[in-house]
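Quick start: what a row looks like.
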Amino acid sequence: MNVRRVVAAVVLSGALAGVLAGCGVEPTGVIEVGRPAQGAKRPGVPVKEARLYFGYPGGLQAVSRPAGGEVSAEEAVPLLLAGPNEPERIRGLYSELPRFGGRIEVVTGQGTVTIQLPLDVTRLSPTARSQLVCTAAHNGVPGDLPAEEVKVVLSGGGKKLADQTCDNKYIAPVVIPPASPAA
């Protein structure tokens, strides 16, 4: 009787394995859904987007906006100053930068960016300063330094904040991809 149970168990296990192995899942081709994955870029490949930093609960949040070619710090800072667009605001992004009534000048050098503002830069909040510094450092700056090593000078109102760097401790860990254009 024990032998019969063992044989029955082996036969039943074999039949069950056969059923599970051929459970009817058919192979399929690639199914196109949405935009391709975004995230880390290949080193040495020019980035064809503007990387802007806005306030977000828990720190700064990087936002990528598509561009026709590589975006310089000189081009990215005015985009930042315009503030988050509607889809970015809907996702909870905001700017602590005030509206500037005057000329803003952005000049890049080897591993450096100088941003001249029409106000006392020491009165900017830490978030507003980080928005400017990180946006400038993460876009085209001569010298091929990592963004964390780019030195940014904020000046205005007779004051100067030298050697500012983008401090990753204020950046939220997730990159929000650009919103798809409305259809």
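That is the whole record. The radius of gyration is 26 Å. The first strand starts at residue 49 and ends at 56.
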